[in-house]
Specification:
Blueprint: H1 4-58, E1 77-83, H2 93-110, E2 114-120, H3 122-130, E3 135-139, H4 148-163, E4 169-179, E5 182-191, H5 195-200, H6 210-213, H7 223-298
Parallel strand pairs: 1-2, 1-4, 2-3
Antiparallel strand pairs: 4-5
Helix pairs in contact: 1-7, 4-7
Length: about 300
């Protein structure tokens, strides 16, 4: 049985860990607020580019043969992008993405498909490499505060792979931010950009009046040239949204995990304190019995 000194040492260690987890919770909470603000700031621009892209498509008699809009004749090679974090200590934030992507990988392999891996975040990259997977595109060091240039780099690589025929389809896995307590794994198709997806996809909560639908739009330059410029921007915004959603989800998950760790530390300190008091009482009782036994022996 542990001595009082040993129990006191354990209590001190737990208290030190608790100080760290509380500090990490506060840092994650501050970063989460900034991440939520960045998502809010992105939404107007994302809605505008989505609406403009839809308007261009609606005003074209025929959809041009743009490589990013065309489906390949075969779908033998799938590109999978997983969006994870650079750091751990965030509960199931990283593991649930990796688990979902691996399940999709096994499904595709059972159908005889090839998979090309892309990963954002050190955790995703290291996990895939540990499993012996070749990561064609590894993007690290930006998950705490992703920039639009990070999204552009990923977008350019994925678009180039699709246009060059290295992949026939691109799918993504990322954590969709709902609240600090809840994140949802989203599995979405990025490429090819389906014509109906461009027409139908709406920003969450976006509402448009009928007058806007009936408005006459005049394009300069031609609508086809505008669409050629919009499609890459559309993909970049889609990737950037995924990165921001993942960042907010990571901070929320880490804040929740650290809060739970702090609460568990409090419970553990209480249990250890109770054990220490019991040990002290047992030692006092033992000393009293030894004194009594000694007194009886002398009498």
């Amino acid at each position: 049985m542990a001595t009082q000194k040993e129990i006191k040492g354990r209590i001190g260690s737990v208290r030190n860990i608790q100080k760290i987890t509380r500090a990490m919770e506060m840092v994650a909470a501050a970063r989460l607020r900034r991440a939520e603000q960045r998502i809010e700031n992105l939404r107007p621009y994302a809605r505008a580019i989505r609406r403009l892209t839809r308007r261009v498509v609606e005003n074209m008699e025929t959809i041009p043969n743009l490589p990013l809009l065309e489906e390949h004749e075969s779908d033998n090679t799938y590109g999978i992008l997983i969006v994870t974090g650079d750091r751990g200590l965030a509960g199931a934030f990283n593991s649930q993405i990796i688990r979902a992507a691996n399940a999709r990988y096994r499904e595709l392999r059972s159908e005889g498909k090839e998979v090309v891996w892309y990963a954002s975040g050190r955790r995703g990259v290291s996990s895939l490499e540990f499993r012996g997977m070749e990561v064609v595109g590894a993007y690290q060091g930006h998950t705490d505060r992703p920039t639009f240039s990070d999204a552009r780099e990923i977008s350019d690589d994925l678009a180039a792979a699709y246009v060059d025929g290295k992949v026939d389809r691109v799918e993504t896995f990322h954590n969709h931010y709902i609240s600090p307590l809840s994140q949802e794994v989203r599995h979405e198709t990025l490429l090819p950009l389906q014509q109906m997806a461009v027409l139908v996809e709406e920003a969450e909560g976006e509402e448009e009046e009928e007058e806007e639908h009936r408005a006459l739009w005049i394009f300069e330059p031609e609508a086809e040239e505008i669409l050629q410029r919009l499609i890459p921007d559309y993909i970049e915004i889609s990737i950037y949204r995924r990165l921001l959603e993942s960042t907010a989800s990571e901070h929320g998950a880490r804040m929740t995990a650290m809060r739970n760790a702090s609460e568990n530390a409090t419970d553990l300190i209480e249990d250890l304190t109770l054990d220490m008091n019991r040990q002290r009482q047992a030692e006092i009782t033992q000393e009293i019995m030894e004194v009594v036994a000694g007194a009886e022996g002398l009498s």
